[in-house]
Amino acid sequence: MEIPNASGLPAAAAMRINVRPLGNPLPLGLFSFGIGMLLLAAQTAGWVAESDATQIGLVLAAFVFPLEGLATIMAFLARDTLAATVFGLFTTSWLTLGLTLLVARPGATSHPLGFFLLGFAAAVASLAAAAVAGKPLIAVLLSLSATRALLDGLFQLTRSTSTEHAAGYVAAAIAGVAWYAGTAFLLEDLRQSALLPVFRRGAGQAALEGDPAEQLSRAEGGGRGPAAALDSRANVGAEHDHSVPTPAANAAYLRPSRRPSPPHGCLRRTPRRSWRRTPAGRQGSWR
C-alpha cells in the first residue's frame, strides 16, 4: 500500500506498507505454557510419584517445547519483540527441564540446574518489568514465573522440601493465569473485541485502539521499545520507501472501505499483495 502524501509529491515518494497476515501466537504459546506449568506443579508439589518424573520430562520435551517454538517464530514474524523474547527463552527452558528429568535419577538435585534456574529467573524478571508499561497481565504471569524459577533453583541448591513444594504451588497459579490469558486473547482475536479483560494500557492499548496517525508516525520514526511494541494481532510488516512529510494528514487515507472493487482514483490491490495508488485523483481508501 502506498500512502499518498499531502504535499503533492509523486506516488514514488509515498510510504509503501506490505500487509502480511499472521495469526496471533499468544493463545498457542499461553495454552502450552499453562500445560507445562501444571506438569511442573504436579512434579514439584508432590502430586505424583518421584518415579513419574521421566514421563513428565518426556511430555515437556515432546509437547510443550515444539509448540512454544512455533509461537516464538510467529511472534518474531509479527514483530512482537516482547512476546518473541518471552516464548524464545521459555522454549529452550522447557527442553532443558524435560531432558534433565529424562536423564536424571528421580528425586535427585543438580547444582548446575539450580544456577541455570537462578539466571533464568533474573532474565524473566527483566521481561516482567518491561511488560508492565503496556501489558500488565503478561507482567503478572512473568513475575510468577520468575518466582517459581527462583524457588526451584533454591531447591536444587539446598534440597529444601518446603521450597520445592512452594515452587509447585506457584506453578499451579501460573497455569491458571496462563489459561485465562490464552482464553482472553483467543476470544479477542475471534470476536475482534475484548470479551475478557486483558488490562492493556499505554502503548499496548494504543496499538489496537489508537489513532492511525499516531501509529503511522511511530512507524516512520522506527521507535519500537518493548513497552511500545504493537500487539501481535495489530501488527503488519512495513517497508519504508520514502518518508511521508505529514503523517497526520495522510491518516485521512486510512479509512476502511467495504466496497468489493474501489473506483478509479482509489487504492487498488496488486498481484504481489501490496497496495498502490491509481494515477487519477488523490482520494484513497484502505480495503
Characterize this entry briefly.
The protein is mainly alpha-helical.
Keywords:
single chain; 287 residues; mainly alpha; Serine Threonine Protein Phosphatase 5, Tetratricopeptide repeat; two-stranded antiparallel ribbon; two-stranded antiparallel sheet; 9 helices
Plain-language structure description:
This protein has nine helices and four strands, in the order ββαααααααααββ. It has helices at 26-44, 53-77, 81-103, 111-131, 136-158, 161-191, 203-209, 212-221, 247-250; strands at residues 2-3, 15-16, 267-269, 275-277. The protein folds into two domains: 2-20 and 236-277, no CATH class; 26-191, Serine Threonine Protein Phosphatase 5, Tetratricopeptide repeat, CATH 1.25.40. The chain has 287 residues and is mainly α. It starts with a strand and ends in a 10-residue tail after the last strand. It has a two-stranded antiparallel sheet. Mean pLDDT is 76; it is low at 223-287.
Architecture blueprint of SSEs:
Blueprint: E1 2-3, E2 15-16, H1 26-44, H2 53-77, H3 81-103, H4 111-131, H5 136-158, H6 161-191, H7 203-209, H8 212-221, H9 247-250, E3 267-269, E4 275-277
Antiparallel strand pairs: 1-2, 3-4
Helix pairs in contact: 1-2, 1-3, 1-6, 2-3, 3-4, 4-5, 5-6
